[in-house]
Amino acid sequence: MSYKIVTLTRVIKICILLMLAFIAVAIMSILIGPANIGTGQALKGILYGWQEGYTGLTPSEKTIIFSIRLPRVIFAGLIGASLSVAGVIFQALLRNPLADPFILGISSGSAVGAIIGIIAGLGAVPFGVPGLAFLGAAFTVVLVFLIGRSDKELHSNTLLLAGVIVNAFFSAIIMFLISISTNTDLHNITFWLMGDLSLATWVKILFVSVLLLLGFVVIYSHARPLNLIVTGEETAMQLGVNVERTKIVLFLAGSLITGLAVAFSGIIGFVGLIIPHIMRMVIGPDHRLLLPASFLFGASFLVVADTIARTVIPYSELPVGVVTAICGAPYFIYLLRRRSA
Fold first, then answer.
1. Is 240 left (phi over 0), alpha (psi -120 to 50) or beta?
2. pLDDT, tens digit (0-9, with 9 covering 90-100), for 322-338
3. pTM (predicted TM-score)
4. Scanning 42, 211, 234, 260, which has the fewest C-beta atoms within 10 Å of its C-beta?
């Protein structure tokens, strides 16, 4: 399959198109919900409801739109973007089409921290559970790098094995913690492990968006070296790329945004696996375009998945990870069969 040459103009055009798609999806998600708010009324509320003295919405409708639905939509977009970009990085550096952001065990380490926080009753403390979850993710990254780095170099196979070992260890701890949890804690733990975006707040959105954008800037600044590394590390070195430094920076940045996403939303599987593949098939493998396209399309995908999760069952809510798994599992099987063919 041939792809068009990546130019700045093409990157801007595709990003604008995907941004418009995200805005459309976001508006659709805000309009959908159990509360009966008219479409025209809701659209006017989104545009003008923030103004002082606006009377087109009742206080309860204003709360539903600006304190519940809008923060959740933006938060879902940020998490989807984080996981998608991290998936692009791990698939490229590990040269494994089945790699996802959790392949190095970051999700398990984060889950241990989150479960400890839930059991300890830190859910009522601001950033209590997410803080411990992020510390667990950071500890996992350090542990995997210490185990997987040999001769001051990062080898893909060694890192993968280190990730498998660390993941198995933390999975055992997770099972132990679940076995000693109370029924109330068990419900909260289960929702967290399957992905939960219902606790979105503007403070969390600000925190996640700042760190995500910083991580994305670092990653995107290495898009061209990443293209060269994918074609061959020796070729990249001959063209002046500091391969080891680039790999370390990208692994750490990818791990950071993965840990950030998992800490605040729980484990939402398959987003970081299927979005990079879909974008790669549509627009090509050049990371100068693939990274921003995956960022925006991943955001739209998770907003749609979360909308389905909170509306498919009346007066109830599914963990968003259930919806992404239903979408992602068949695609995962397709990738396996395609690779073995």
1. left
2. 899 888 878 777 766 77
3. 0.91
4. 234
